[in-house]
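#dry-run=false #mode=assembly
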Amino acid sequence: MTKQALPHSFPQGTADSADARPSAGAVPADWRDFFALTKPRVMSLVIFTGLCGLLAAPERIHPVLAFTAILCIAVGAGGAAALNQWWEADIDAEMKRTAARPLPQGRMNRTDARDFGVAISVGSVLLMGLAIGWLAAAILAVSIVYYAVVYTIWLKPRTPQNIVIGGGAGAFPPLIGWVAATGHITLMPVLLFAIIFFWTPPHFWALALFVKSDYAKVGIPMMPVVAGEKATRRQILIYAILLLPLSVLPWWIGGAGLVYGVSATVLSLVFLALSVRVGLRERTGPEDAMRPEKQLFGYSVLYLFALFAALVADRFLPL
Amino acid sequence: MTRETDPKRIRRSRNNVLGLLLTAFVILVFFISIAKMG
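#status=ok
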């Protein structure tokens, strides 16, 4: 198959460009390309936090229903990711980190990606509603629309606060998991939502600091591009400071026990220490390897996994 | 891993995966029905 280059004369990220895009060629997309559209690596974090929300909830549901709820959360996230890639195919083609995805590589017709995203999104919401409950299904639907429309189409190309508001999309899984188990919303799942909401900016801006040139090239107004590195570092620090009390709040209000409380305190203090290092330093020059920023980004992923694992451990090992 | 370039084989492989997914879905619906009845 001849790899078909995307014609860059199309305006970036518009419905017209999406529909006017020529087909990917004679060779049909492999099933692996459809799987890649769902961003499996991001999905692993979604599955994990959704499962933790479900397991940390005070009520239990049948294991088959629990599995179905997590499956719906994962497939819904996959659908939103496919819609994100459908909309951003031009931008993805310009960035090193995303250029190997199926659409920029011309391995898939853009309309197929859109239809696939819509089909599995709708399917996941319907299955969640019919098998688990319509409140969990409604929150899942909101999270998909939030990521695919509010973040991808509306905010990301328009404001450097895109990550702050759009990052809320990634905060939904534990809330959905909790609601799937209990059938209602209480303060605890809202706190879990808030923790991921406040975690997202320092996590993503640490990445944006060392891939800044890529975002600048495609005109995405990421914080380091628009407000500069200094302002971004300051904001990373502010969010890390806010995250510390927020992460231990579930313990203070009695929603979690000592295992979670101690883990959250230690994990968040390390997060804050790494953020202070990033927040107070300046790039030494073009040769700067940006190690502290890379360390903060790497630790931020570990932090979220460990924090939610501690929440579940606390439920099963109450001290 | 080298990518498959024969359209027939790609379609067959896609159909196999789709068939497996549909079968898994039917089995899941069966178990969901039992769980809901319980």
